[in-house]
Structure formats: C-alpha cells, structure tokens
Protein: Arginine--tRNA ligase
Amino acid sequence: MKKFLEMLTEEMQQAFTAAGYDGSLGKVMLSNRPDLCEYQCNGAMAGAKLYKKAPIMIANDVAEQLKDSKVFSEVVAVAPGFLNLKVSEAFLLTYLQGMEANEKFGLEKPEHPKKIIIDYGGPNVAKPLHVGHLRSAVIGESVKRISRYVGHEVIGDVHLGDWGLQMGLVITGLQERQPELVYFDENYAGEYPEEAPFTISELEEIYPAASAKSKEDPEYKAKAMEATFKLQSGVRGYRALWKHIINVSVNDLKKNYSKLNVEFDLWKGESDVHDIIPEMVAYMKDNGYAHLSEGALVVDVKEDTDTKEIPPCMILKSDGASLYNTTDLATIMERMKLYHPDELIYVVDKRQELYFEQVFRCARKTKLVEPETELKFLGFGTMNGKDGKPFKTRQGGVMRLENLIKDTQDEMYKKIKEGRDMEDAEAKKVADVVAISALKYGDLSNQASKDYVFDIDRFTSFEGDTGPYILYTIVRIKSILNKYKEQGGDLTAVKLQQPGNASEKELAMELAQFNTMIATAGEELAPHKVCAYIYDLANAFNHFYHETKILGEENEERKQGLVALLVLTRDILETCIDMLGFEAPEKM
Ligand code: ARG
Structure:
C-alpha cells in the first residue's frame, strides 16, 4: 500500500499539473496549525518565484482543480498562498480498511531487503552488567526489531568482551584464592572437572578486587598480563578455566537480558576470532596495507579531507599482542565470510565514535568489506542522574543493571498498590512487566545520541510521555473490548465506519500515519520516532475515548465501527511496543 501522505501528495501534484504548474510543487505535509487544518501544502509559495505570480493566485488555481477531489474534503487557499487541507472521511476510511486487510498494516516491503548484523549489548565476561550496558541492549534490541519488521534480515550479535586483560585478572584473582586448583598445575595431563570452581557471586567479587589490586600493585598487574598471554597462547588449564568463566557468566547474562526482553541470535565474542588474527595480519602486510611504526603494526587511515586528526589504526602492539581494534577487524572479516551482510550496525557508547571511524576506514582500505557494504555507528549518549552526571548508586558507585531493574520494579509496585485494589502477588507480576516499559521507554524516547536523565519517578508515572502511560492506554482498550465480548459482541465481525466526530477522525488520521512513521524509523534507526508516534496515538485515543460513547452507542452499526477502530488502535500500539521490546499486561 502507498503511504498515506504520499497519496495526499499525489493528489496535490496532479492538481498542480492540471492547473498548469510544475507537479513537484505539490508536497503535502502535516499542518503546523492543527486549529485551522489537518494538512497543508506550501507549494504555491515556492511556485511564485518560478512563475512570477502572486502565490495566492497559484493557490487559487490549484484549489479550483480540487473542488471535486475524493481525497480532500476541504481545500482553502489563504493569504499569502498557503493551501489548507482537510482529508475526506470516505478516503480515510478506505485507507484504514486497506491497512486492516493487509499484512503489516499495508507497509510495503523494502525494494532491496538487506542482510544486517547488529552488534549490540557488548557486555564483558566476568564483569557485572552495569547501567552503561543498558542503553546498548535496549537500543540495539529495538533497532533489530524495527529493521526486521520493515523487512530486512537481521542477525543480532552480543559480541562479548571475553578475551582481554579482565580474563587474566580473574584467573590471577582465582589463583590467589584457590592456588591448589588443578588448572594452575601446568604439568597436569588429566581431565578438568566439569563443575566450575566458583559461583557467579564469587566471580563478581573476584574481578573488581583483582582489578583494584592491579592498579596499585604493578607486580600483580604483570601477573595478570602474563595470565592473559598464557590464556591466549592456549595453555590448557587456563583455557579450561576460561571456559568455566564464560559459561557461568553467560548464564547470568542471559538471565539479565531476558528480564529486559533482549535476545541475541549469536553469542559470539572477541575470543572467537583469535585464531584468524594471524591470517588477517599476514594479509594486511602482504598487500602493503599495514606497516611498522615504532615497532607497532599500523594501517594509516587519515584522508585528505579530514578536518581533525585521525590517528593510524593499530593492528598489533610492538610486543605482538592484539588489541580491541584487532579483534573488531577480525570480527568484520569473519562476519563477511560467514554471513555476507550488506550492512553492519554497531550500537556502542558514542565515546567510541572516533575508534569506530578508524576501524571502519581500516576495514574499507584493507578491503575486508566490499565497497558497497554499509558500516554504521549508532552511538548513544550517557544515562545521567538528576545531578546531570553519569548515573551512580546512592553510595556513589557504578549501578548494577540488576539493581536498576529491581529499583524500578519496586517503585512500580508501590505506584500500582497505591492506585488500585490488587492482590500483592498479582500487583508484583504486573509491576515487573510495567517496570520494563518504564525503563525502556524512558531510554528509547530520547534520540539515542543524546544524554538523558534517569528519573525513576517520572518514568514510572501513569501520566505523560512514559511507558506506563502507553500500557495503560492499551489495557484500557483491551478492557473495553473484553466488555464488548462479554456482552455478546464478536470482534471478528466488526467493520470500520467513517469517523463520526472530530476526535474520532483525529485518531483515524493518526493510525493512517503508521506506515510513514515506521519506514522512517527503520531508515533512520530511530526508535524514538516510534515512541513519539505511540505517544501521539495514545493521546489521540484517550481524547477520543473521553469524547465518545463507545459501548453505550445505540446505533449498532456505528458501535461496531467504533469497536473496529479500537481493535486497529490496539493492534498498532501492540505492534509498536513489540518493536520497542516491551509488552502490555492484561490488567493494570
Ligand atoms: N565490550 C565493549 C565495552 O564494554 C563494547 C563492545 C562494543 N562492540 C564492538 N564490536 N566493539 O566497551
């Protein structure tokens, strides 16, 4: 199906042409004076110069052509030359019927569906998830779902940080606590125990302690570096221990991500490309892309048009060790080989932007990717506290993601108990679901690149631009629909009708915008556009709800039309929240 606004524009373009003007002037947009009209066209203003004519004359000519339009019920030329437009109710009805009848509400498949890999989450094994990882997970998951909905093939990869110094630190910390473990005996030739010699809580203690110690004690740091080196060069006991660390940690990560409805298709990590690094390095050297600079192997990536200094991309350190860059480049090489994606999207803290610029340039220059492969960096800003500084616990430490979720659930529970009469157990269940919407919507409703303030009180409010408000609206619709069914109504038999009042028409026009909105959100990787849309849609619905008798409507045909409009509103809202990665409870 064509997009609603496109159809309005086509009608207007034909009128411009018929009146003897250039059709491309007939662009229709949403009105910025909703008190005067629903849509507007400013083409006559642009045409004035071209035709050396007063804009109002052009506008009048065009309006004349649209006298009998089936698309516009009202076309008014106003000084100095605007065209104020209202959409015909019959046309609107036909459009909504088309949305109802078509898959995905008539959203057309992309002309060139792409295969996309989204690199998001990016947790580091053995380190607890903290709020910094929240944004990557929440935004990445939504971008993945939107891109899939739009019609692309999308693979989500968590890209674990599982190969760096933190692994050596954990191994060193563990050795200090349990030096008797067989893993540390380099002459040991038997099997290693299947059971991990630590729990997740121990693991979470070990890393911070070892990390702190390594900062004060250079000898300890050297030991951790040596352990990292031994692990990477394949010492059996270290590898066996590392596998345990990964397993215990990944199990815990999966638990946390599933609380957030975040699911990855691939659980790969930096370690997965370890074995192909030598091959990549040889390739870069042999083809003359990489050269030695002060002992390190680098690829120059600066370009003549640069306005700021872009340092060379370092592939190997002077001691031959690989770096963050090295694993990222090798991962690109592997992804191209295994999946042939058309596009790679990285959802990472925007402070890594320059880093990714280097990596992307290097991947292009060394032809790890095809010239047409798109490499996109979706950088996100910081989640701040009310003081405007990066969000911290009350004690001033880094907030663990688990605790942030828990705090939000507790606050939601309090609000639900305050406002309504609900059993504790049910209130708890509902609160857990609604809290996820509070957290995710609070994040996603901001443009990703912007910083935002985590305001638990606002995020969990049932009023305003919040997740709970959206869910509340959905639950309200569901409860009306349930009542309709209880009264013997059949939801599958109801048919849309022409809108009967202004608020109903507004709601219908909002629904008609779905296609345009979702296509844009997909192209721009912009979940905040989905949020803005459902906020407008929920407002339009609630306004309509207060103005309109629904189940009390006496005319049966009209009542069914209203119910059908409710069904469509519910379906679109639910489709949208699914793309944002949260869901609505049955009651709240
Ligand atoms: N583990 C990294 C961090 O915590 C993020 C990984 C982002 N993805 C990537 N391909 N580099 O900063």
Remarks:
- The chain has a mean pLDDT of 95.
- DSSP finds 20 helices and 13 strands in the chain.
